[in-house]
Amino acid sequence: GNCYDEYNKKGLLYHKYGDGAVIAKIFTEQLGLKSYSIKRSKSKKSINKISLIDNNCLLFVSGKNNMKRDIQYLNDISLEYPYRDMDFKKKLIRAFISEVLSKTIIDSEKNQELFNYVWQTYIRLDKLDSLSKSFSLIFLIELCEFLGIYPSDENINFEYFNLNSGEFTKSENVSDKNITGDNLFFFKKIIKKEPVSIPTKNIRELMELLFDYYTLHHFDLSNIKSYKVIKSLD
User: Fold this and answer.
1) Which residues pair with 77 in a beta bridge?
2) What is the CA radius of gyration of the chain?
3) Per-residue b/e over 165-203, b at no fewer than 16 CB within 10 Å?
4) 8 Å CB contact between 29 and 7
5) Cβ-proximal residues to 122 (8 Å cutoff; 6+ apart), any chain
6) In a structure prediction context, what are the per-residue pLDDT tens digits for the chain, which is 234 residues long?
7) Could you write out the three-class secondary structure of the chain?
8) What is the rounded distance in angstroms from the CA atom of residue 93 to the CA atom of residue 25?
9) Does this model's pTM top 0.85?
């Protein structure tokens, strides 16, 4: 297969595969989402590799890509960007971002713009002195743009947002799901990229509506475990 060396990759999630190895799904700059095998052993090097992926670190990885294999092998993993803030809530949000991406990114499909956005989002999150409760909500809305489902801002002054059609509407279609009232006000503010302070109650309601929106547009975000933990801490 083709050989690719020294390219930046981002760890998305990791899970055990058999007894002797870990399969790491890594979102790469050059190759999209790929699965890699890491031998599990008690050596310091092996434990360190797994720790880097498990903590959603920003990685520098060298490896080979064999087009005939579903699971690739890594030559090396190292830390590209060391997080300065290991705050528990930030760690949870990184896990949330990782979990959402694992359910929305298509394997082996390069997406440079999305890669750059996610990479910078992790860095921006790390550098924040004050963490906004609406960070995860804003991420979910911004991510829509890279998935081709960003809400149309046409008729943004209308009084309803129809989740099924992804459009603002004059009247409510009761057979569809809609964003209305205070939630619509905050939703519009985020779309317009205007600063706004959103009460916890409305953040929760909007998060649930956004999960519905993704599902209606063929991205299943049901059972996001990290969000359940985030919600329990608010």
Assistant:
1) 61
2) 19
3) eebbeeeeeeeeebbeeebbebbbebbeeeeeebeeebb
4) yes
5) 10, 56, 58, 81, 94, 97
6) 334 444 445 555 555 565 667 888 888 888 888 888 887 777 777 777 777 777 888 988 877 777 888 888 877 888 888 899 889 999 999 999 999 998 898 777 788 899 999 999 999 999 999 999 999 999 999 999 999 999 988 999 999 999 999 999 999 999 999 999 999 999 999 999 999 999 999 999 999 999 999 999 999 998 888 888 888 876
7) CCEEEEEEEEEEEEEEECCCEEEEEEEECCCEEEEEEEECCCCHHHHHHHHHHHCCCEEEEEEECCCCCCEEEEEEEEEEECCCCCCHHHHHHHHHHHHHHHHHCCECCCCHHHHHHHHHHHHHHHHCCCCCCCHHHHHHHHHHHHHCCCCCCCCCCCCEEECCCCEEECCCCCCCCEECHHHHHHHHHHHCCCCCCCCHHHHHHHHHHHHHHHHHCCCCCCCCHHHHHHHHHC
8) 18
9) yes
Which amino acid would we find at residue 181? G
